[in-house]
Amino acid sequence: MAITIILIRSGATEAGLQDRYLGVLDQVLSDEGQASLKRRVANHVYPEAELVFSSSRLRSLATAQIIYPRMPAIVLRELEPYDYGKFSGKSYRELEAEEEFQQWLASPILFPPPDGEDPHAFGARCGVAIRKIVNETECKGLQKVAIVTHLSVICAILRRYHMPRPLYWDWQVDCGGGFITEFDSTRGVMTISEKF
Asked: Strands 2-9 and 189-195: what pairing?
């Protein structure tokens, strides 16, 4: 069965506007982040969805509420952002001189952040999220769902399911942006049909 999965990155926060690694730290949307999302909604950027899923982070829930105001988001723990550990809340400039940071940038799979989440466990967690979402969508006989989450989660999902296999950093998308994908639940393969 083919399911349309709309992957949406949560809107901008003050930390995001400062290019900080936010991860599991919780922040509300910035005024600019809210305004940008509302402009996109007014311009009909976001596709309709029959179900909406989100992480529990304030920025994701607020993004889902702005984009899909008539549809309460279903919160999944598995959609929580990557834990950047020691790097959380810091910017590239604050970290660039640290050897551990440079190792992580060069190979995030081999060198997770100190006190951060294991990348393999994170990828597996994101895989569980997709399986839960696909199962619920199919059980309800629906075909189009939105996932409002974080860039780290979007990258992990695409890395796990998209063919051909990408590198971890291959897909970057602005805050409030995303991808429309088609997920073949029989083969477990996702393809991007549009970036917005």
From this structure: unpaired
User: Residue 190 pLDDT > 70, yes or no?
Assistant: yes
Q: Where are the domains of the chain?
A: 2-195
Reported as a single tens digit per residue, the pLDDT across 60-114 is 999 999 999 999 999 999 999 999 999 999 999 999 999 999 999 998 888 999 9
Q: Which residues of 29-61 are buried (b: 16+ CB within 10 A; e: fewer)?
A: bbeebbebbeebeeeeebeebebbbbbebebbb
Say yes or no to pLDDT of 168 above 60. no
Give one DSSP letter per residue of 116-144, joined into a string.
---HHHHHHHHHHHHHHHHHHHHHTT--E
Inter-CA distances, 48 with 107, 119, 144, Å = 37, 32, 8
Q: What is the CATH T-level fold of the domain 2-195, as seen in this structure?
A: Rossmann fold (3.40.50)
SS3 category, 176 = coil
